[in-house]
Amino acid sequence: MNRWILVFAALAALSSAADSGKKIVCYFGSWAVYRPSDGKFDISYIQPKLCTHLIYAFVGISQEGKVVVLDAWQDLPDNSGKDGFGRFNKLREQSPETKTLIAIGGWNEGSAKFSAVVADPTTRARFVKDIVDFVKKYKFDGFDVDWEYPCQRDGKPEDKHNYISLLKELRTEFDKHGLILSAAVAAAESSASQSYDISAMSKYLDFINIMAYDFHGAWEPVTGHNAPLYPRKDESEDDRKLNVDASVHYWLRNGCPPEKLILGVPFYGRAFTLADTNQHGLGAPITGPGTAGPYTREGGMLGYNEICESFKQGGWTVARQEEHRTPYAYKGDQWVGYDDVTSFAEKTAYINSLGLGGAMVWSIETDDFLGTCGEKYPLLKTLNARLRRQVPIELSTKQPSQTTQSPRTTQPPVTASPSGICKKEGFVRDQKDCSIFYRCLKVDSGYKIYEFSCGSGLAFDPEINNCNFKNLVPGCN
Prior knowledge:
Layout: E1 6-7, E2 23-29, E3 53-61, E4 67-68, H1 72-75, H2 84-90, E5 99-105, H3 112-119, H4 121-137, E6 142-146, H5 159-177, E7 180-186, H6 189-195, H7 198-202, E8 207-211, H8 244-253, E9 261-266, E10 268-274, E11 286-289, E12 301-303, H9 304-313, E13 317-321, E14 326-331, E15 334-337, H10 341-354, E16 358-362, H11 378-387, E17 393-394, E18 404-405, E19 426-429, E20 436-443, E21 446-453, E22 458-461, E23 466-469
Parallel strand pairs: 2-3, 2-16, 3-5, 5-6, 6-7, 7-8, 8-9, 9-16
Antiparallel strand pairs: 1-17, 3-4, 10-11, 10-12, 10-15, 13-14, 13-18, 14-15, 19-20, 20-21, 22-23
Helix pairs in contact: 4-5, 10-11
């Protein structure tokens, strides 16, 4: 049974010189501050250098075309409030290059009020003005439109046209103030084709966050993966369109510039209760949603932090679906399809191969932000490693087997390093081979030394204490 782990050797300060220009857009679900125990997520836990854009979710919309604060005590400083907006924007002091946005809408908001507001030119103009005033008042860098979805969920057929009018008018006003305008959108053709004039909306948005997840869930009668990269051969014709690849190509074919398309990736999985514990593959019959997790407390959904903590308790079997390029796991009658560092490595390679603009995260507070299972923020750091040219070190070249029980952390071997290479604790590059480096740990009067090796074409970069592309590492070209 193969054991595996991807570990990060002191993923330290992100080097702007090595930045590839890819965006990493991180949504923050502000209600996570109310979660119990180790699931409670405070704004102070955010590491802003790991995100090029941070989006605070959500504010609402009124019938009169006003932006509505949904949790005044949490969001505002008034009446001894928690000042979430202010503390969120203050994160830019730690990472001045990171931009902050406020998102409106979300699934719970639905479509009815959006549809009514944008249908009337006068109300729509009032809404645009109020958005600009709101963004400036609370000092955000921009605004994210998360209308789920035009022409659907109590919307009207004319929403598709009126949505473009809204974006056009926002663009005109935003350009006067140097503000960023983005949107979160349905990914799959079956939904996106109803809601969007893609080529038109692309003219007015700085970037488009495609929500490439929730392709399957417990609303269906059988198990299905939350965010498969590619289809399976045994899927129906309709289901073969419910994956990342089909969705991305639909958006590109219909006029979205690849550099504006930000691929959404989930920091959570979709969970099911199996009808028969002997049938535990994809397409297995279910009786309903999986058991709610201790933090998110929503049946049929588990945060990655909840998933990895469950694995630590043992008893889970993890399998990788070779066509989907994503993992799933089962234990007794519980089943979950999710993403991990390995599937994210493949999705980021996919992003790079198509020249997409980067990755969007839903959502930052369900990563392993406390490091309970190992490295803090393993998923978010994987995205940075692959998209912003900060490359993780693989200690094992073996891929995970089709089934593996409770993955564990392994240590690199102690090595007989070149004499005198360790002068102090920390990392040091081999003097003859740039792809090899050592970790020096002070023990009594000497050092314990661990050897690491970067992958092919990579070299250890002492400026970031990590592997990097050779052409970016001085002295290793």
